[in-house]
Design a protein that fits this description.
Elements: E1 5-8, E2 11-14, E3 18-19, E4 25-26, E5 44-47, E6 50-53, H1 72-85, H2 94-97, E7 101-106, E8 121-127, E9 133-140, E10 146-151
Organism: Aramus guarauna
GO molecular function, one term: integrin binding
Keywords: Disulfide bond, EGF-like domain, Glycoprotein, Membrane, Repeat, Signal, Transmembrane, Transmembrane helix
Length: 152
Amino acid sequence: CTGNGICKCRVCECFPNFTGSACDCSLDTSPCMASNGQICNGRGTCECGTCNCTDPKFQGPTCETCQTCLGVCAEHKDCVQCRAFDKGEKKETCTQECMHFNMTQVESRDKLPQPGQPDPLSHCKEKDVDDCWFYFTYSVNSNGEASVHVVE
């Protein structure tokens, strides 16, 4: 019974949180928890402690990897723009939609965080609504907290 139950008369009686004929299926959903707090990122089902991604674009252990989706920079561009410069497509909904990261403004591009820090870091260059370039970095630390540094 894979150590997760007791064999009685050639039938496994599973301990709590386990199921299956050999008690090899965990009912614990914590390995399926995505960084946004949803089971399998809301794009799959948790079966035996493993995500079965139902949206074919998404893969990975928690259905968070998407090779064909917008990059980090494009995804966060509108929120960075409204928080830093009070303009852009999300200007009116900024406080509802764009408070999911800590933001720090820096004076110049050379003051942005540089690669080599422990957290994954994306350097971004995006155009704003006035067709001007703006620069920011996006990183997520081990606690799942996102940080943005944007050039004033």
